[in-house]
Amino acid sequence: MIKAKKSLGQNFLIDRNILKIISEVTSIKDKIVLEIGPGTGNLTSFILKKKPKQFIVIEKDNDLASNIAEIFKDQLKIINEDVLNIDENSLSTEKITVFGNLPYNISTEILSRWIINLKNDFWFDRLVLMFQKEVADRIIANFNSSYYGRLTILSNWKLNIEKICDIKPDSFSPKPKIDSSLLVFSPKENFFRINDPKNLEKITRVFFNHRRKMIKKPYNQLFNGNQKVLEKLKINLNLRPQNLNFETYYKLTNEFENLGD
C-alpha cells in the first residue's frame, strides 16, 4: 500500500467530484499534457479519459513513480525527477497544459521559478494548479490588501489568473490541516516588458523585506535617492510597499534596469 510521505508534502486528492472539476477546467483533447506529482494516479485517470495527444508526468518519489508506471504502462511518459531540476522549456516543442497538486512546501518556489524563467514565447497554454489557500490568496490579492506582496506582483506580471474553487481537507488523504484553492493561469497577450525578470524579483524582495515600514529606505537602497524616478512615477516615499500597484513595480524595475545606461 502506498503511503504519503510527510517529508515530500504529499496529500493525495481522492474526492472524485473535485477530480472531475479539475480535469474539465480546460479542453485537453489532442494536446500535450503535463502532470506534476501524480501521486497515486487519481487525477491521472481522469486526464487520460480526456484523450490527450501526449501525457507526461513528473514524479520525484521513486515508489510512486514505479506504481504509476505499473498502473498506466505505456499510456504516459514518466520523468522520475524533482520538478525543480527540470528545464520546463525543453519538455515539448508544442505548448503544454499543466496540472499539478503542488507540494505545499515548494509550491511558491515552483511557480516563481517558472515565471522568472519565462521566455517571450510561453511553453504552456494553461497552468491548472492547486495551492494552500493562503498562498492562493496571496497570488490573487489586490494591492492595498494585507495579502498583496512579492508573489502577487510576480504572478500577475505575465499571467491572467482565475480562481476556480476552494477545496476542503476532507478531499485529501491524509487530510491536510488547511484548505486548498484551485487556480488557473493563462498567458497575457500584453504585459510590461522587463529585460531580466530577476530584477523584478530583486525589486519586490527589497521593498517587501519590511512590508510594514515606509518605502523610503528600500527606495534609497536601490535608487540612491534618485529624485527623477520619484517624480516620473509620482511615488510618495511615505507609502508602504502594499500601497504601490502592479504597474508601479514593473515601471520601477524598468527604471532600475536603466540606471546603468
Can you offer a commentary on this structure?
The chain is α/β, with parallel strands linked by helices and 261 residues long. It has 2 domains: 6-187, Vaccinia Virus protein VP39 (Rossmann fold); 197-258, Orthogonal Bundle (Helicase, Ruva Protein, domain 3), CATH 1.10.8. The protein has 10 helices and 9 strands. The chain has helices at residues 16-23, 42-49, 62-72, 107-116, 133-139, 150-158, 197-207, 216-223, 227-233, 246-258, and strands spanning 12-13, 32-36, 54-58, 77-79, 96-101, 124-132, 159-167, 172-173, 180-187. A 7-stranded mixed sheet has the order 4-3-2-5-6-9-7. Strands 1-8 form a two-stranded antiparallel ribbon. Helix 3 links the parallel strand 3 and strand 4 (77-79). It is elongated and about 65 Å long.
How much beta, percentage-wise? 15-25%
Number of strands: 9
Multimeric state of these chains? single chain
Order of helices and strands: EHEHEHEEHEHHEEEHHHH
CATH architecture of the largest domain: 3-Layer(aba) Sandwich
Biggest sheet strand order reads 4-3-2-5-6-9-7
Count up the helices.
10
What is the CATH superfamily of the largest domain?
Vaccinia Virus protein VP39
Average predicted confidence as pLDDT: 92
The CATH topology name of the largest domain reads Rossmann fold
Helix amount, in percent?
25-40%
